[in-house]
Specification:
alpha+beta; ten-stranded mixed β-sheet; four-stranded antiparallel β-sheet; 35 helices; 28 strands; binds adenosine-5'-triphosphate; cytoplasm; nucleotide-binding; ATP-binding; microtubule; motor protein
Length: 941
């Protein structure tokens, strides 16, 4: 069947000004221009004028626009009515309300008393009524061979957890008693991807949600109401009853039709066809985006806001990517759609760009104070108009059978009611049986995976887990290679030509003496170099090591000798301004590393004073144990630094409070070393071997819409350096996916970044010669296309489907514009005019001075942090060119270098490759930088 595409139907609904806004005298900035079908946002003051970049108004055309006076009636009739009817033909459909907080999404979807005091029926109750009208009509026709079954389920996506709204009872008590993490394990639902019966597509499916079977509209309406009462709501400055979760109410329609193809013949057989149609109607009320500064969210609400904004940002990116893809389709280009960036986008995968008929209702506020959000909503809605879905009916299990009617016919020669009823029932039983079997199979698999996950989590707490995991990984890989069954062809691993020739030519599988295709290979010359690097490192270790029995201490010594540490652990440093020439930044970092770190000293003092207080009770021990488990990796790095800062403490017995944590840590480090080698100093700690864990984590997306790049995908385990820097109790980003991603990267035979970096550290080679395109700078000069082409996306939904961990930190990159001419500085120009000078900008072009660049970059950094803070982003990440970072530090910007193997991909072919080759990665807490800049540089927001 030819696949027909249909655009997403987008409409805009503006609510009236609410009493608060009227009381505060807000002006309206939204109007409708009927002749051009545009929703127009108008600049009502200087601020909005600025946001429109000098234009007085901006118009967005939409087929359907609903002003404050409109009710849901017209939206329903125009857009939703036809959708509900399509569901009975087997099409999936979605109605999705989107917009900032307080803009009227819940009002549109659920109804209630409006600002004008009138009670309005929302879209969902209307859908329920309409749907059962159709069911009744079908039933009224009394076609015997037809059966309809309606079920529904209600979910909410709250703080990235999927929950069943129909079984909330007792959730609060359980959370307060056992903590959310425990409750999540029992109440959280799984999102997985399954193959559809028809079309062979992979669609998202929520496993474990309670499906309520309903037989009439009242029953369904009651179910909906009960579920929505359970939804997480809260009060903010912008909405008294703000939804803090995305709600998805799904109605499943299952229709079975038995058609009699041939009536009973002389052989007493009839030929019948039984067809099943099933469709899903999703009614989605998203939580609204909010600027936390305005909503006043703190604590729990702040966390909620961060999650809401994160999901919506991902949704925006999906919309932009799909719209771009639709535009590019004329050139038959297929782009990457970042569905997997959030649970919300995964859930809506089928509704946006899938096979659903979709209506997007963009809700906006008319108030001038909401100008920016309104403009943003309209911008995305406008892009969404371009998205094309491919609706296909879900008709499956159409069976034609010869049947011997066992019951006498009502009319001579024809199949009677009772026979058809019997056939239907029989078919229904068969279907139930089939579904039951499928459910059981799935449940069994889920149980198996849950057991596996639990066992793995237990195992991960055991000392030496990392080591075991690495060994196991290599063992599996060795078997896989030997059998010649590599599931991933090398060509798929790195999909970009720029990255060819990655690494130094010798890959770690040379240890296995095998290539990825399973054939035996001679070792390359690089292996000798490795050997020498190894012995050199061991020599250094031997000369610096003072306490042979302590793994963590040896590790500490090593960490001081090498910039690159093992197991993804790395340290960070607060940088201080340094006077002197603008040397290569990379070269400058070693002396600083040796100099120790204030924050570590502080930490040590804190723990010491704790110990001095004699606070060594059970509670503390438990807490220390917990802390040691959760931050063990970070502590290793930290411990290493501490030891360097206070070497005289080594001889002293460690305070009791520290012992617990250190024992854990130490245990882990030692256990990672093969037992046979434990007492041999030279072999006890093999830096290279321990570093052989795959750990390059780089998957970045460029938001082509803006000038900022969004750098994502951080895992708990492998970015512990970053995680360790977060304030206590910050939810840790975690993603099982990363482990998988790493494994994939491992399969690239030429990639051996860690080893190469070791060689650079041991001065066997220079960075430029050795690393080639593996190291570089993302931000300072990125060209959007170039980076887009470097996207790694190795995730296979099939293999990842049960790994449902999605929390991530968002890291933002910063671009410094490199224009040759500087725009006139207003203040300077004004001063000069006042002083009677000619306008210096008039005829000649003023080049940028380095101070200009610095000011500009700091301004940008400030703007970035403000934006990030408003969006609930906690930490930032950038790779500025070396000199610039130095200057930032001089200007008091608090940055910390990440000394891990986190390296970015920058193609050697890039014209400025050499210039940026020594760039380093810096990390910062957004609020610190913003506050610092505000304070020191007197920047007025
Ligand atoms: N079109 C409208 N006409 C009349 N009143 C409206 C309209 N839209 C919204 N309202 C009222 O505005 C208030 C906020 O609306 P609502 O709660 O639906 O916003 P929301 O977008 O769902 O917000 P959040 O994202 O915070 O949940 C409610 O009191 C609602 O009744």
């Amino acid at each position: 069947m030819a696949e027909e595409q249909s655009s997403i139907q987008v409409c805009v609904r503006a609510r009236p000004l609410n009493p608060r806004e009227r009381h505060e005298g807000h002006r309206e900035c939204v109007s409708f221009d009927e002749p051009t079908k545009q929703v127009v946002v108008t600049a009502v003051d200087k601020n909005t004028l600025l946001q429109l970049r000098g234009k007085t108004a901006l118009g967005y055309a939409f087929d359907r626009r609903y002003g404050p006076e409109c009710t849901s009636d017209s939206i329903y009739d125009d857009r939703v009515h036809a959708l509900v009817e399509s569901c009975f033909k087997g099409y999936n459909a979605t109605v999705l309300a989107y917009g900032q907080t307080g803009s009227g999404k819940t009002h549109t979807m659920s109804g209630g008393q409006g600002i004008h005091g009138l009670v309005e029926e929302g879209i969902t109750p209307r859908v329920i009524r309409h749907l059962f009208q159709i069911v009744e009509n079908i039933q009224k026709r009394q076609k015997p061979g037809e059966q309809i079954e309606v079920t529904a389920c209600a979910l909410e996506l709250y703080n990235e957890d999927l929950l069943d709204l129909s079984v909330r009872s007792g959730r609060e008590e359980l959370i307060s008693k056992n903590g959310w993490d425990t409750v999540r394990a029992s109440m959280g639902l799984k999102l997985q991807h399954t193959h559809t019966h028809t079309h062979g597509r992979v669609v998202p499916e929520v496993v474990g949600a309670h499906e309520k079977k309903v037989s009439n509209a009242n029953e369904l309406a009651k179910f909906y109401h009960d579920c929505m009462v359970n939804r997480s709501t809260g009060s903010t400055k912008l909405n008294d009853r703000s939804s803090r979760s995305h709600a998805i109410f799904t109605i499943n329609i299952h229709r079975t039709i038995v058609d009699v193809l041939e009536e009973v013949g002389s052989d007493m057989k009839a030929r019948v066809r039984t067809s099943d149609y099933s469709s899903k109607l999703h009614l989605v009320d998203l939580a609204g985006s909010e600027r936390v500064k305005r909503s006043g969210a703190t604590g729990k609400e702040l966390k909620e806001a961060c999650n809401i904004n994160g999901g919506l940002l991902a949704l925006g990116n999906v919309i932009v990517a799909l719209a771009t893809e639709s535009e590019a389709k004329k050139e038959s280009k297929k782009g990457h759609i970042p569905y997997r960036d959030s649970k919300l986008t995964r859930l809506l995968q089928d509704s946006l760009g899938g096979n659903s008929l979709t209506v997007l209702i963009s809700c906006i506020s008319p108030s001038e104070m909401d100008f920016e959000e309104t403009n943003n909503t309209l911008k995305y809605a406008n892009r969404a108009c371009l998205i094309k879905n491919t609706p296909l009916p879900n008709n499956y299990a159409s069976v034609e059978e010869d049947l011997l009617p066992s019951l006498p016919t009502n009319a001579p020669g024809g199949l009677g009611m009772m026979q058809l009823q019997a056939l239907l029932e029989d078919h229904g039983r068969q279907r139930e049986l089939r579904e039951k079997k499928e459910r059981e199979k799935r449940d069994k698999e889920l149980r198996r995976l849950a057991d596996l996950a639990a066992a793995r989590s237990e195992e991960s707490k055991r000392p030496g887990y990392q080591r075991l995991r690495a060994q196991q990984y290599y063992e599996d890989l060795r078997k896989q290679l030997a059998s010649g069954k590599t599931s991933i062809p090398t060509s798929q691993v790195i999909g970009d030509e720029n990255l060819k020739g990655f690494g130094s030519g010798r890959h770690r599988f040379a240890d296995l003496n095998m290539s990825v295709d399973g054939t035996l290979q001679p070792l390359t010359p690089g292996s000798n170099e490795r050997g020498s690097a190894r012995s050199r490192i061991q020599l250094m270790r031997a000369s610096t090591s003072r306490t042979p029995s302590s793994g963590s201490k040896r590790y500490g010594q090593l960490s001081q000798s090498h910039n690159f540490q093992r197991g993804g652990v790395s340290s960070s440093q607060d940088w201080e301004p340094q006077a002197g020439p603008e040397n290569d930044f990379f070269e400058q970092e070693s002396p600083r590393a040796q100099a120790g770190n204030d924050s570590f000293v502080e930490d040590e003092q804190a723990s010491k004073s704790q110990a001095d207080n004699g606070d060594t009770g059970e509670d503390q021990e438990a807490a220390a144990k917990q802390a040691a488990i959760s931050k063990s990796k970070f502590r290793r790095g930290q411990g290493a630094q501490k030891e360097a800062a206070t070497p005289e403490k080594e001889a002293e017995p460690e305070p009791e409070t520290e012992t617990q944590g250190e024992t854990e840590t130490q245990g882990e480090v030692e256990a990672q070393t093969p037992t046979a080698e434990t007492n041999n100093e030279d072999q006890t700690y093999d830096l290279i071997q321990d570093d052989s864990m795959p750990k390059l984590l780089a998957r970045f997306r460029v938001n082509t819409h803006d000038t900022l790049a969004v750098y994502k995908a951080i895992s708990k385990e492998d970015f512990q350096d970053v995680v360790g820097l977060l304030p206590e109790n910050t939810p840790l980003p975690a993603s099982e996916k990363m482990t998988y991603l790493l494994a994939r990267l491992e399969l690239n035979p030429n990639r051996d970044l860690n080893e190469t970096l070791q060689r650079v550290v041991s001065k066997e080679t220079t960075m430029n010669e050795a690393v080639g395109p593996a190291v570089g700078c993302l931000m300072a000069t990125f060209g959007t296309n170039m980076i887009s082409s470097c996207i790694f996306d190795f995730e296979d939904p099939e293999e990842l489907k049960y790994y449902d961990v999605e929390e991530r930190i968002e890291l933002w990159g910063l671009q410094i514009p490199h224009t040759s001419a500087r725009p006139p500085l207003e203040a300077v120009a004004a001063q000069e005019t006042e002083a009677g000078k000619e306008n210096p900008q008039g005829s000649e072009v003023t080049p940028w001075t380095s101070i200009d660049r610095l000011n500009m970059s700091i301004g940008l950094l400030f703007a970035l942090c403000t934006h990030a803070l408003d969006n609930g982003i906690r930490c930032g990440f950038c790779v500025p060119r070396p000199q610039l970072l130095k200057r930032w530090l001089q200007a008091g910007v608090r940055m910390r270098q990440i000394q891990s193997e986190l390296k970015l991909i920058y193609p050697e072919s890039a014209h400025d490759y050499d210039y940026y080759k020594a760039s380093t990665v810096a990390y910062f807490m957004v609020n610190e930088v913003r506050d610092g800049l505000e304070e020191r540089l007197a920047i007025v927001p």
